[in-house]
Amino acid sequence: QVQLVESGGSSVQAGGSLRLSCRASVRTLSSMYMAWFRQASGNGREFVAGIRRNDGATDYAEFVKGRFTISRVSDTVYLQMNNLKPEDTAVYYCNAAVKAGGVWRANPALAGGWGQGTQVTVSS
Predict the structure, then answer these.
(1) What is the pLDDT of residues 82-122, one digit of tens each?
(2) Fewest Cβ atoms closer than 10 Å to its Cβ: which of 40, 86, 89, 106?
(3) In whole angstroms, what is the distance from residue 9 CA to residue 79 CA?
(4) In sequence order, what E strands does 29-117 have?
(5) Residue in 118, 21, 10, 28 with CA at minimum distance from that of residue 77
């Protein structure tokens, strides 16, 4: 059973904001890192933002820096998305992650796989 539940996706116009939520199990949150990933139609899944458990340090993909903010409160990981662009349209997923050599990769084993994701659609 997958222990992740993403929510908060919606359809918005360019320039708008959304806040995504990811509720995860204790086991999943034991990961040193948690991250958000996204997958646009026809593309592979890509890293968006990550957060380190012990000190809250964050990291972002270049294409969201200055617009998105990842945070964690208790058993929920959030992604605040501002100034959304049409190219942000995708299904957004959170998961446990690993970071090595500056590269982020998902570690879905802790959560038992991937959640259902949450759809974000940005219109111009």
Answers:
(1) 999 999 999 999 999 999 999 999 999 999 999 999 999 99
(2) 86
(3) 10
(4) 33-39, 45-52, 58-60, 68-73, 76-81, 90-100, 103-106
(5) 21
